[in-house]
Amino acid sequence: MKRPLLALTAAALMTGAALPVAYAVAAPRGSATASLGAEDRAVVNAASSYLQNLTTARGRFVQTDPNGAVSQGTFYLKRPGKVRFEYDAPSRLLVVADGSNINISDPRLKTFRQYPQGKTPLSLFLGQTINLDRGSISRVNRSGDSFSITARDSRRQAEGDITLTFSNSPVQLREWTVTDPQRRQTRVRVTSLTPAGALDNSLFTLRNPNRRTGPR
pLDDT digit string (tens) for 80-102? Predict the structure, then answer.
């Protein structure tokens, strides 16, 4: 079964395994943005400002999981804290972050899973205030018309890294890659991203369809 981005991330983080050194040129675990040079700090600030202003959006994504399997779908973003991934058929997976938990529904397998949202590195760019240097930035790469930032949220219990890649001019999110404690990577490429205006909160509510309610 293909495992969606957030499912993969959350499941891996639940293992409690220590994150190995994932990058040969990465700074030691726990290093912070203070160690960055002026040019690196400038791109981190540009990315933080862009994400701070990205309050509601919708778009399309293409995901490649650690086994090379490719899936795609539509996503909706409503900061703070909310994002919804709708996977195209035949998967039809739904992954919804509601601000507190990440909920994953697989209608084909009739399963429902839930993970604490704060234990995933995605919390770095779903917060009320986006400030990437609150985390531990291990690497900033600049290449041609793009740049990438690898970080973890040092305030939380996440045991994984996230690498955000942006275009330079204008600054826009292109993709992100989550590396789990076993060094498995899931890459999500954003193929379209547009402001969405008002998004109904019902998009970010996902209840367990298998839970019985009311009198028996």
Answer: 899 999 999 998 899 999 999 99
Q: What is the pLDDT of residue 128?
A: 83
37 Cβ partners below 8 Å, 6+ apart? none
Q: How confident is the model at residue 213 (pLDDT cuts 50, 70, 90)?
A: low
Q: Which SS3 state, helix, strand or coil, does residue 20 take?
A: coil
Q: What is the DSSP secondary structure assignment for residue 185, as one 8-state letter? A: E
Ordered structural domains, the chain, with CATH: 5-191 (2.50.20.10)
- The two tokens of residue 197 are 């205006």
How do residues 36-45 score in pLDDT, each as one tens digit? 888 898 999 9
What residues contact 2, with CB distance under 8 A and at least 6 apart? 65, 69, 71, 91, 93
How far, in Å, are 27, 83, 166, 202 from residue 96 at the CA level?
32, 6, 24, 11
The long-range contacts involving 1-4, CB below 8 angstroms and separated by at least 24 positions, are 1/106, 1/109, 2/65, 2/69, 2/71, 2/91, 2/93, 3/65, 3/186, 4/63, 4/71, 4/85, 4/87, 4/93, 4/95, 4/104
